[in-house]
Amino acid sequence: MQVVETNADGLKHDFKVVIPAADIEQKVEHRLHELAQSVRIPGFRPGKIPLSLLKKRYGQPVMDEIIEQTVADSTTRTMSERNLRPATRPKIEITPFSEGQDLEFTMAVEVLPEIEPMDFSKLKLERLQADVEDSEVEQALERIAAQHRRSEPIKGSRKARKGDILVLDFVGKIDGEPFEGGTNTDFHLELGSDMFIAGFEDQLIGARPGERTQVKVTFPEDYVSDRLAGKEASFDVEVKELRAVAPVAVDDALAQTMGLDNLAELKAKMREQIEREHGMLSRARLKRQLLDQLAAAHDFTVPQGMVDAEFEFIWTRIKEAMDKGALDPADAGKSEDEIKAEYRSIAERRIRLGLLMSEVGGQNNISLSAEELNRAVMDEARRHPGQERQILEFHRNNPEAMERLRAPLFEDKVVDFIVEMAQIEERKVSAAELVSEPEEQPPAAPQTGKKRAKKPSKPKPETPHSKKTSKPRKKISKLEE
Protein backbone atom coordinates (compact mmCIF):
# COMPACT_ATOMS: atom_id res chain seq x y z
CA MET A 1 0.00 0.00 0.00
CA GLN A 2 1.30 3.43 -0.98
CA VAL A 3 -0.01 6.46 0.94
CA VAL A 4 0.78 10.06 0.03
CA GLU A 5 -0.52 12.99 2.06
CA THR A 6 -1.58 15.56 -0.50
CA ASN A 7 -2.80 18.26 1.85
CA ALA A 8 -2.57 19.17 5.54
CA ASP A 9 -4.51 22.27 6.52
CA GLY A 10 -5.11 22.57 10.24
CA LEU A 11 -7.33 19.66 11.24
CA LYS A 12 -8.00 18.65 7.63
CA HIS A 13 -5.87 16.02 5.93
CA ASP A 14 -6.09 14.63 2.39
CA PHE A 15 -4.44 11.41 1.25
CA LYS A 16 -4.02 9.46 -1.96
CA VAL A 17 -3.89 5.72 -1.40
CA VAL A 18 -2.81 3.13 -3.95
CA ILE A 19 -3.28 -0.63 -3.49
CA PRO A 20 -1.30 -2.77 -5.95
CA ALA A 21 -3.37 -4.84 -8.38
CA ALA A 22 -1.54 -7.98 -7.21
CA ASP A 23 -2.82 -7.46 -3.65
CA ILE A 24 -6.39 -7.11 -4.87
CA GLU A 25 -6.10 -10.22 -7.05
CA GLN A 26 -4.67 -12.22 -4.17
CA LYS A 27 -7.54 -11.23 -1.88
CA VAL A 28 -10.11 -12.04 -4.55
CA GLU A 29 -8.65 -15.52 -5.12
CA HIS A 30 -8.49 -16.17 -1.38
CA ARG A 31 -12.16 -15.21 -1.02
CA LEU A 32 -13.13 -17.43 -3.98
CA HIS A 33 -11.32 -20.38 -2.40
CA GLU A 34 -13.32 -19.76 0.78
CA LEU A 35 -16.54 -19.79 -1.23
CA ALA A 36 -15.52 -23.04 -2.90
CA GLN A 37 -15.85 -24.80 0.46
CA SER A 38 -19.47 -23.80 0.94
CA VAL A 39 -21.19 -23.16 -2.41
CA ARG A 40 -22.74 -26.02 -4.36
CA ILE A 41 -22.69 -26.29 -8.15
CA PRO A 42 -24.22 -29.35 -9.83
CA GLY A 43 -21.56 -31.71 -11.10
CA PHE A 44 -18.86 -30.63 -8.69
CA ARG A 45 -18.02 -31.73 -5.20
CA PRO A 46 -17.57 -29.00 -2.54
CA GLY A 47 -14.01 -27.71 -2.65
CA LYS A 48 -13.43 -29.07 -6.15
CA ILE A 49 -15.08 -26.34 -8.17
CA PRO A 50 -12.66 -24.79 -10.73
CA LEU A 51 -11.54 -21.27 -9.88
CA SER A 52 -12.45 -20.08 -13.37
CA LEU A 53 -16.08 -21.18 -12.87
CA LEU A 54 -16.25 -19.56 -9.44
CA LYS A 55 -14.82 -16.38 -10.88
CA LYS A 56 -17.36 -16.39 -13.67
CA ARG A 57 -20.28 -16.79 -11.28
CA TYR A 58 -19.13 -14.81 -8.24
CA GLY A 59 -16.25 -12.69 -9.50
CA GLN A 60 -17.98 -9.29 -9.54
CA PRO A 61 -19.73 -9.59 -6.14
CA VAL A 62 -16.49 -10.81 -4.60
CA MET A 63 -14.53 -7.98 -6.24
CA ASP A 64 -17.00 -5.41 -4.87
CA GLU A 65 -16.71 -6.96 -1.40
CA ILE A 66 -12.89 -6.95 -1.52
CA ILE A 67 -12.72 -3.34 -2.70
CA GLU A 68 -15.07 -2.19 0.05
CA GLN A 69 -13.17 -4.08 2.74
CA THR A 70 -9.76 -3.03 1.40
CA VAL A 71 -10.71 0.65 1.35
CA ALA A 72 -12.04 0.41 4.92
CA ASP A 73 -8.94 -1.43 6.18
CA SER A 74 -6.57 0.93 4.36
CA THR A 75 -8.34 3.97 5.76
CA THR A 76 -8.12 2.66 9.31
CA ARG A 77 -4.46 1.69 8.87
CA THR A 78 -3.55 5.08 7.38
CA MET A 79 -5.01 6.96 10.32
CA SER A 80 -3.59 4.53 12.87
CA GLU A 81 -0.04 4.76 11.51
CA ARG A 82 -0.20 8.56 11.68
CA ASN A 83 -1.96 8.69 15.07
CA LEU A 84 -4.89 10.57 13.57
CA ARG A 85 -8.17 10.59 15.49
CA PRO A 86 -11.03 11.23 13.04
CA ALA A 87 -13.60 13.77 14.14
CA THR A 88 -16.07 12.79 11.44
CA ARG A 89 -16.40 9.94 8.97
CA PRO A 90 -13.65 10.17 6.31
CA LYS A 91 -14.78 11.11 2.80
CA ILE A 92 -13.66 8.49 0.30
CA GLU A 93 -13.57 8.80 -3.49
CA ILE A 94 -12.52 5.70 -5.46
CA THR A 95 -10.92 6.21 -8.85
CA PRO A 96 -12.69 4.23 -11.61
CA PHE A 97 -11.29 0.73 -11.29
CA SER A 98 -10.96 -2.23 -13.64
CA GLU A 99 -9.71 -5.72 -12.89
CA GLY A 100 -5.93 -5.94 -13.24
CA GLN A 101 -5.38 -2.29 -12.30
CA ASP A 102 -4.14 -0.79 -9.07
CA LEU A 103 -6.88 0.33 -6.73
CA GLU A 104 -6.65 4.09 -6.09
CA PHE A 105 -8.74 6.27 -3.83
CA THR A 106 -8.54 9.60 -2.08
CA MET A 107 -9.36 10.13 1.55
CA ALA A 108 -10.29 13.45 3.17
CA VAL A 109 -10.49 13.39 6.94
CA GLU A 110 -10.91 15.99 9.65
CA VAL A 111 -9.23 15.02 12.89
CA LEU A 112 -9.74 15.86 16.52
CA PRO A 113 -7.54 18.64 17.90
CA GLU A 114 -4.90 18.27 20.55
CA ILE A 115 -6.43 19.55 23.79
CA GLU A 116 -4.55 20.66 26.89
CA PRO A 117 -7.02 21.09 29.75
CA MET A 118 -6.41 23.98 32.12
CA ASP A 119 -5.41 23.63 35.76
CA PHE A 120 -8.85 23.15 37.28
CA SER A 121 -7.66 24.19 40.72
CA LYS A 122 -7.58 27.77 39.41
CA LEU A 123 -11.32 27.79 38.79
CA LYS A 124 -13.32 29.93 41.21
CA LEU A 125 -16.98 29.03 41.46
CA GLU A 126 -19.88 30.08 43.64
CA ARG A 127 -22.38 27.58 45.00
CA LEU A 128 -25.70 29.14 45.97
CA GLN A 129 -27.60 27.63 48.87
CA ALA A 130 -31.15 28.43 49.90
CA ASP A 131 -33.05 27.18 52.92
CA VAL A 132 -36.60 26.01 52.36
CA GLU A 133 -38.92 28.75 53.52
CA ASP A 134 -42.24 27.97 55.21
CA SER A 135 -44.01 30.01 52.55
CA GLU A 136 -42.69 27.68 49.84
CA VAL A 137 -44.12 24.67 51.65
CA GLU A 138 -47.45 26.42 52.09
CA GLN A 139 -47.59 27.39 48.42
CA ALA A 140 -46.80 23.80 47.44
CA LEU A 141 -49.61 22.54 49.65
CA GLU A 142 -52.01 25.03 48.11
CA ARG A 143 -51.06 23.82 44.64
CA ILE A 144 -51.71 20.24 45.69
CA ALA A 145 -55.08 21.23 47.11
CA ALA A 146 -55.94 23.01 43.85
CA GLN A 147 -55.05 19.89 41.88
CA HIS A 148 -57.40 17.81 44.04
CA ARG A 149 -60.33 20.15 43.94
CA ARG A 150 -63.62 18.94 42.57
CA SER A 151 -66.64 20.65 41.09
CA GLU A 152 -70.23 20.15 42.20
CA PRO A 153 -73.49 20.90 40.37
CA ILE A 154 -75.07 24.16 41.48
CA LYS A 155 -78.52 23.62 42.91
CA GLY A 156 -81.25 25.92 41.79
CA SER A 157 -81.05 28.29 38.88
CA ARG A 158 -78.70 31.21 38.60
CA LYS A 159 -76.53 32.90 36.02
CA ALA A 160 -72.95 31.80 35.43
CA ARG A 161 -70.22 34.01 36.82
CA LYS A 162 -66.43 33.99 36.85
CA GLY A 163 -65.06 31.00 38.72
CA ASP A 164 -67.98 28.78 37.74
CA ILE A 165 -67.54 25.74 35.55
CA LEU A 166 -69.80 25.31 32.54
CA VAL A 167 -70.37 21.94 30.92
CA LEU A 168 -70.66 22.71 27.21
CA ASP A 169 -71.26 21.25 23.79
CA PHE A 170 -69.99 23.51 21.03
CA VAL A 171 -69.39 23.57 17.29
CA GLY A 172 -67.02 26.14 15.84
CA LYS A 173 -67.53 27.47 12.31
CA ILE A 174 -65.65 29.71 9.90
CA ASP A 175 -67.67 31.11 7.01
CA GLY A 176 -70.50 28.86 8.13
CA GLU A 177 -68.46 25.66 7.86
CA PRO A 178 -67.24 23.65 10.89
CA PHE A 179 -63.47 23.65 11.20
CA GLU A 180 -61.21 20.90 12.45
CA GLY A 181 -60.60 21.07 16.19
CA GLY A 182 -63.51 23.41 16.83
CA THR A 183 -66.03 20.86 18.10
CA ASN A 184 -66.37 19.28 21.54
CA THR A 185 -68.96 17.73 23.81
CA ASP A 186 -69.33 17.73 27.59
CA PHE A 187 -66.41 20.11 27.83
CA HIS A 188 -65.74 21.60 31.28
CA LEU A 189 -64.78 25.27 30.98
CA GLU A 190 -63.91 27.37 34.01
CA LEU A 191 -64.93 30.95 33.36
CA GLY A 192 -62.03 33.30 33.95
CA SER A 193 -59.40 30.64 33.30
CA ASP A 194 -58.44 32.26 29.97
CA MET A 195 -58.31 28.77 28.50
CA PHE A 196 -59.87 29.95 25.24
CA ILE A 197 -59.08 32.93 23.04
CA ALA A 198 -60.04 36.41 24.24
CA GLY A 199 -63.75 37.07 24.31
CA PHE A 200 -64.99 33.50 24.31
CA GLU A 201 -65.44 33.06 28.05
CA ASP A 202 -66.70 36.60 28.63
CA GLN A 203 -69.66 35.98 26.34
CA LEU A 204 -70.76 33.04 28.49
CA ILE A 205 -70.91 34.99 31.72
CA GLY A 206 -74.58 35.20 32.65
CA ALA A 207 -75.56 32.03 30.81
CA ARG A 208 -77.91 29.53 32.41
CA PRO A 209 -78.09 25.72 32.10
CA GLY A 210 -80.22 24.66 29.13
CA GLU A 211 -79.49 27.79 27.13
CA ARG A 212 -78.19 27.80 23.58
CA THR A 213 -76.16 30.75 22.43
CA GLN A 214 -73.70 31.82 19.78
CA VAL A 215 -70.23 33.05 20.65
CA LYS A 216 -68.35 35.12 18.07
CA VAL A 217 -64.61 35.60 18.24
CA THR A 218 -61.68 36.55 16.02
CA PHE A 219 -58.54 34.48 16.18
CA PRO A 220 -55.45 36.67 16.75
CA GLU A 221 -53.23 37.43 13.77
CA ASP A 222 -50.37 35.76 15.63
CA TYR A 223 -52.39 32.65 16.51
CA VAL A 224 -50.24 29.55 16.45
CA SER A 225 -52.39 27.82 13.80
CA ASP A 226 -51.93 29.53 10.44
CA ARG A 227 -55.24 28.18 9.15
CA LEU A 228 -57.08 29.99 11.96
CA ALA A 229 -54.92 33.09 12.43
CA GLY A 230 -56.92 36.29 11.88
CA LYS A 231 -60.12 34.41 11.02
CA GLU A 232 -63.56 35.30 12.38
CA ALA A 233 -65.33 32.32 13.91
CA SER A 234 -68.69 31.60 15.51
CA PHE A 235 -69.43 28.87 18.01
CA ASP A 236 -72.84 27.33 18.52
CA VAL A 237 -72.80 26.62 22.25
CA GLU A 238 -75.18 24.61 24.42
CA VAL A 239 -74.82 25.15 28.17
CA LYS A 240 -75.66 21.76 29.66
CA GLU A 241 -74.70 22.25 33.30
CA LEU A 242 -73.46 24.84 35.77
CA ARG A 243 -70.99 23.69 38.40
CA ALA A 244 -69.10 25.35 41.23
CA VAL A 245 -65.59 24.54 42.37
CA ALA A 246 -65.52 22.93 45.79
CA PRO A 247 -62.39 24.02 47.66
CA VAL A 248 -60.17 21.37 49.18
CA ALA A 249 -58.84 22.01 52.66
CA VAL A 250 -55.17 21.55 53.42
CA ASP A 251 -55.59 19.00 56.20
CA ASP A 252 -55.06 15.38 57.18
CA ALA A 253 -57.73 14.26 54.71
CA LEU A 254 -55.77 15.76 51.80
CA ALA A 255 -52.63 13.96 52.97
CA GLN A 256 -54.52 10.68 53.19
CA THR A 257 -55.71 10.98 49.58
CA MET A 258 -52.02 10.89 48.71
CA GLY A 259 -51.35 7.76 50.75
CA LEU A 260 -49.84 9.55 53.77
CA ASP A 261 -50.92 9.43 57.39
CA ASN A 262 -51.43 13.08 58.15
CA LEU A 263 -50.72 16.68 57.17
CA ALA A 264 -47.46 16.77 59.11
CA GLU A 265 -46.10 13.94 56.98
CA LEU A 266 -47.25 15.67 53.80
CA LYS A 267 -45.50 18.89 54.86
CA ALA A 268 -42.32 16.95 55.55
CA LYS A 269 -42.50 15.34 52.09
CA MET A 270 -43.03 18.71 50.45
CA ARG A 271 -40.08 20.20 52.30
CA GLU A 272 -37.86 17.32 51.18
CA GLN A 273 -39.00 17.74 47.59
CA ILE A 274 -38.33 21.48 47.63
CA GLU A 275 -34.90 20.84 49.15
CA ARG A 276 -34.13 18.51 46.24
CA GLU A 277 -35.34 21.14 43.78
CA HIS A 278 -33.12 23.75 45.44
CA GLY A 279 -30.19 21.36 45.16
CA MET A 280 -30.86 20.81 41.46
CA LEU A 281 -31.12 24.54 40.82
CA SER A 282 -27.94 25.21 42.77
CA ARG A 283 -26.06 22.57 40.81
CA ALA A 284 -27.39 23.89 37.51
CA ARG A 285 -26.20 27.39 38.34
CA LEU A 286 -22.81 26.03 39.40
CA LYS A 287 -22.50 23.97 36.23
CA ARG A 288 -23.32 26.98 34.08
CA GLN A 289 -20.60 29.02 35.80
CA LEU A 290 -18.16 26.17 35.25
CA LEU A 291 -18.95 25.80 31.56
CA ASP A 292 -18.67 29.55 31.02
CA GLN A 293 -15.22 29.59 32.60
CA LEU A 294 -14.08 26.49 30.72
CA ALA A 295 -15.22 28.01 27.43
CA ALA A 296 -13.32 31.21 28.18
CA ALA A 297 -10.15 29.33 29.14
CA HIS A 298 -9.93 27.00 26.12
CA ASP A 299 -9.64 28.31 22.57
CA PHE A 300 -8.48 25.34 20.50
CA THR A 301 -9.59 24.85 16.90
CA VAL A 302 -12.65 22.66 16.52
CA PRO A 303 -13.50 20.41 13.55
CA GLN A 304 -15.81 22.31 11.24
CA GLY A 305 -17.58 19.11 10.23
CA MET A 306 -18.72 18.63 13.82
CA VAL A 307 -19.71 22.28 14.09
CA ASP A 308 -21.72 22.01 10.86
CA ALA A 309 -23.62 18.99 12.16
CA GLU A 310 -24.35 20.66 15.50
CA PHE A 311 -25.44 23.87 13.80
CA GLU A 312 -27.84 21.96 11.54
CA PHE A 313 -29.32 20.28 14.61
CA ILE A 314 -29.90 23.67 16.27
CA TRP A 315 -30.98 25.54 13.14
CA THR A 316 -33.61 22.96 12.20
CA ARG A 317 -35.37 23.61 15.49
CA ILE A 318 -34.94 27.38 15.28
CA LYS A 319 -36.29 27.43 11.72
CA GLU A 320 -39.34 25.43 12.77
CA ALA A 321 -40.05 28.04 15.45
CA MET A 322 -39.43 30.93 13.05
CA ASP A 323 -41.73 29.41 10.44
CA LYS A 324 -44.50 29.45 13.04
CA GLY A 325 -43.81 33.09 13.82
CA ALA A 326 -42.26 32.34 17.22
CA LEU A 327 -39.26 34.61 16.73
CA ASP A 328 -37.12 35.36 19.76
CA PRO A 329 -37.58 39.08 20.53
CA ALA A 330 -33.79 39.34 20.74
CA ASP A 331 -33.61 38.36 17.06
CA ALA A 332 -36.17 40.90 15.88
CA GLY A 333 -34.80 43.15 13.17
CA LYS A 334 -31.87 40.89 12.38
CA SER A 335 -31.31 39.25 9.03
CA GLU A 336 -31.36 35.48 8.75
CA ASP A 337 -27.61 35.53 8.11
CA GLU A 338 -27.03 37.44 11.36
CA ILE A 339 -29.19 35.01 13.30
CA LYS A 340 -27.41 32.05 11.72
CA ALA A 341 -24.03 33.50 12.70
CA GLU A 342 -25.12 33.70 16.34
CA TYR A 343 -26.34 30.13 16.40
CA ARG A 344 -23.21 28.89 14.64
CA SER A 345 -21.21 30.50 17.45
CA ILE A 346 -23.36 28.57 19.92
CA ALA A 347 -22.76 25.35 17.97
CA GLU A 348 -19.00 25.94 18.02
CA ARG A 349 -19.05 26.51 21.78
CA ARG A 350 -21.01 23.31 22.32
CA ILE A 351 -18.55 21.27 20.27
CA ARG A 352 -15.53 22.82 22.00
CA LEU A 353 -16.92 22.07 25.45
CA GLY A 354 -17.97 18.58 24.39
CA LEU A 355 -14.48 17.77 23.12
CA LEU A 356 -12.94 19.19 26.29
CA MET A 357 -15.22 17.06 28.46
CA SER A 358 -14.36 13.98 26.43
CA GLU A 359 -10.63 14.71 26.75
CA VAL A 360 -10.85 15.23 30.51
CA GLY A 361 -12.84 12.03 30.87
CA GLY A 362 -10.36 10.07 28.80
CA GLN A 363 -7.28 11.41 30.58
CA ASN A 364 -8.76 10.60 33.97
CA ASN A 365 -10.36 7.24 33.19
CA ILE A 366 -13.87 8.53 33.81
CA SER A 367 -16.48 6.12 32.53
CA LEU A 368 -19.95 4.81 33.16
CA SER A 369 -20.54 1.36 34.56
CA ALA A 370 -23.07 -1.05 33.13
CA GLU A 371 -25.02 -0.64 36.38
CA GLU A 372 -25.24 3.14 35.91
CA LEU A 373 -26.45 2.75 32.34
CA ASN A 374 -29.02 0.14 33.32
CA ARG A 375 -30.27 2.42 36.09
CA ALA A 376 -30.66 5.24 33.57
CA VAL A 377 -32.66 2.98 31.23
CA MET A 378 -34.89 1.89 34.11
CA ASP A 379 -35.45 5.51 35.14
CA GLU A 380 -36.42 6.37 31.57
CA ALA A 381 -38.83 3.42 31.44
CA ARG A 382 -40.50 4.49 34.68
CA ARG A 383 -41.25 7.86 33.09
CA HIS A 384 -43.57 6.07 30.64
CA PRO A 385 -46.09 4.11 32.72
CA GLY A 386 -47.58 1.22 30.82
CA GLN A 387 -44.80 1.25 28.21
CA GLU A 388 -41.91 0.11 30.39
CA ARG A 389 -41.17 -3.04 28.41
CA GLN A 390 -41.18 -1.24 25.06
CA ILE A 391 -38.88 1.48 26.40
CA LEU A 392 -36.44 -1.08 27.77
CA GLU A 393 -36.35 -3.04 24.53
CA PHE A 394 -36.01 0.11 22.45
CA HIS A 395 -32.91 1.26 24.32
CA ARG A 396 -31.32 -2.18 24.47
CA ASN A 397 -31.70 -2.56 20.70
CA ASN A 398 -30.91 1.02 19.72
CA PRO A 399 -27.31 2.20 20.26
CA GLU A 400 -28.21 5.81 19.42
CA ALA A 401 -30.94 5.88 22.05
CA MET A 402 -28.54 4.40 24.59
CA GLU A 403 -25.98 7.06 23.70
CA ARG A 404 -28.56 9.78 24.34
CA LEU A 405 -28.81 8.45 27.90
CA ARG A 406 -25.11 7.85 28.33
CA ALA A 407 -23.80 11.20 27.12
CA PRO A 408 -25.34 13.51 29.75
CA LEU A 409 -24.46 11.05 32.52
CA PHE A 410 -20.85 11.05 31.38
CA GLU A 411 -20.87 14.83 31.15
CA ASP A 412 -22.15 15.11 34.71
CA LYS A 413 -19.43 12.79 36.00
CA VAL A 414 -16.78 14.92 34.32
CA VAL A 415 -18.35 18.07 35.74
CA ASP A 416 -18.29 16.55 39.23
CA PHE A 417 -14.64 15.60 38.74
CA ILE A 418 -13.69 19.16 37.79
CA VAL A 419 -15.78 20.74 40.55
CA GLU A 420 -13.91 18.64 43.13
CA MET A 421 -10.69 20.43 42.15
CA ALA A 422 -12.14 23.93 41.80
CA GLN A 423 -12.27 26.60 44.48
CA ILE A 424 -15.87 26.71 45.69
CA GLU A 425 -17.33 29.58 47.69
CA GLU A 426 -20.66 28.86 49.39
CA ARG A 427 -23.21 31.69 49.51
CA LYS A 428 -26.56 31.71 51.24
CA VAL A 429 -29.37 33.23 49.21
CA SER A 430 -33.12 33.43 49.43
CA ALA A 431 -35.24 30.94 47.55
CA ALA A 432 -36.41 33.77 45.30
CA GLU A 433 -32.83 34.64 44.36
CA LEU A 434 -31.99 31.01 43.67
CA VAL A 435 -34.81 30.64 41.16
CA SER A 436 -34.61 34.16 39.74
CA GLU A 437 -32.35 33.18 36.84
CA PRO A 438 -33.44 29.79 35.56
CA GLU A 439 -31.24 28.19 32.96
CA GLU A 440 -32.24 28.84 29.39
CA GLN A 441 -33.84 25.95 27.62
CA PRO A 442 -33.35 24.84 24.01
CA PRO A 443 -36.11 25.70 21.57
CA ALA A 444 -39.09 23.45 22.04
CA ALA A 445 -42.56 23.15 20.63
CA PRO A 446 -44.93 26.08 21.17
CA GLN A 447 -46.81 25.77 24.44
CA THR A 448 -50.54 25.40 24.86
CA GLY A 449 -52.22 28.78 24.72
CA LYS A 450 -54.32 31.19 22.77
CA LYS A 451 -51.52 32.91 20.88
CA ARG A 452 -48.28 31.93 19.31
CA ALA A 453 -45.83 31.06 22.02
CA LYS A 454 -42.71 33.15 21.94
CA LYS A 455 -39.68 31.18 21.03
CA PRO A 456 -37.63 30.34 24.11
CA SER A 457 -34.29 32.03 24.52
CA LYS A 458 -31.34 30.83 22.54
CA PRO A 459 -30.41 27.21 23.19
CA LYS A 460 -28.28 26.73 26.23
CA PRO A 461 -24.72 26.92 24.87
CA GLU A 462 -23.28 23.96 26.70
CA THR A 463 -22.10 20.72 25.12
CA PRO A 464 -23.69 18.48 22.50
CA HIS A 465 -24.52 16.15 25.38
CA SER A 466 -27.17 18.67 26.41
CA LYS A 467 -29.26 18.00 23.33
CA LYS A 468 -32.77 16.72 23.82
CA THR A 469 -35.12 15.23 21.37
CA SER A 470 -37.89 17.59 20.49
CA LYS A 471 -41.36 16.76 21.70
CA PRO A 472 -44.57 16.93 19.70
CA ARG A 473 -46.36 20.27 19.91
CA LYS A 474 -49.01 20.38 22.60
CA LYS A 475 -52.56 21.18 21.57
CA ILE A 476 -52.98 24.86 20.87
CA SER A 477 -56.04 25.15 23.08
CA LYS A 478 -59.00 23.13 24.13
CA LEU A 479 -60.69 24.36 20.96
CA GLU A 480 -58.34 22.18 18.95
CA GLU A 481 -58.72 18.95 20.86
Which properties best describe this structure?
Alpha-Beta Plaits; Trigger factor, domain 2; Chitinase A, domain 3; 3 domains; five-stranded antiparallel β-sheet; disordered C terminus; extended; 481 residues; alpha+beta; single chain
Low-confidence runs: 438-461, 466-481
CATH superfamily of the largest domain: Trigger factor, C-terminal domain
Which structural class is indicated by helix and strand composition?
alpha+beta
State the total count of DSSP E strands.
11
Give the C-level CATH assignment of the largest domain: Mainly Alpha
- What is the radius of gyration computed over CA atoms, rounded to a whole number of angstroms? 32 Å
Q: What is the chain-wise order of helices and strands?
A: EEHHEEEHEEEEEHHHHHHHEH
CATH topology of the largest domain: Trigger factor, domain 2
Distance between the termini: 65 Å
Number of domains: 3
CATH architectural category of the largest domain: Orthogonal Bundle
The largest β sheet comes out as:
5 strands, antiparallel
Coarse shape: extended
Query: Share of helix among residues?
Result: 40-55%
Strand content: 15-25%
Number of helices: 11
Mean pLDDT, all residues: 85
